[in-house]
Design a protein that fits this description.
single chain; about 150 residues; mainly alpha; Arc Repressor Mutant, subunit A; 2 domains; 7 helices; 3 strands
């Protein structure tokens, strides 16, 4: 094993890149990127969301999210509309085509799981471990930020 292979951060990075590449291959037929797919999943499961909510939920900044949403709107997948009460708030919703994609793309998660050779049980274990890791790192970063202040 190389020094990189012994680093958790590098293994996470490599796994993330491999996963994104698998999604890229699967999503190509719809002309979607992985982040666009994540927006769709969020809208399919949560309903209309503000751009801020989407950014928070997906851990994407507005500089990344806004152009991505613009391309999705141009493709007829989502709509963006300003809130009548507060014009600063932009709400993103699915079009009929965006809703139809949920059925068309229903097998994408299973195809990715197959690429990963994951069973339902091993996927749950992996998710639990990743959520614990993320929570620990975020808590550590918050603690470090508080000490630095």
């Amino acid at each position: 094993m190389t020094a990189l292979d012994q680093m958790v951060c590098f293994s996470l990075y490599s796994a993330s890149r491999a996963t994104t590449q698998a999604y890229r291959r699967l999503l190509e037929r719809w002309g979607l990127t992985y982040p666009q797919y994540l927006v769709l999943v969020e809208l399919w499961t949560q309903g209309p969301r503000s751009v801020r909510q989407l950014g928070d939920d997906l851990a994407l900044d507005s500089g990344t999210l806004s152009p991505l949403l613009r391309r999705m709107e141009t493709a007829g997948i989502v709509t963006r509309s300003r809130d009548q009460a507060d014009g600063r708030v932009v709400t993103v919703d699915l079009t009929a085509h965006g809703r139809e994609l949920r059925t068309e793309m229903a097998d994408v998660p299973a195809q990715v799981a197959q690429c990963m050779s994951l069973t339902v049980e091993s996927a749950r274990e992996l998710l639990d471990a990743l959520h614990r890791l993320t929570g620990s790192v975020q808590a550590s970063n918050s603690d470090a930020a508080a000490v630095a202040s």
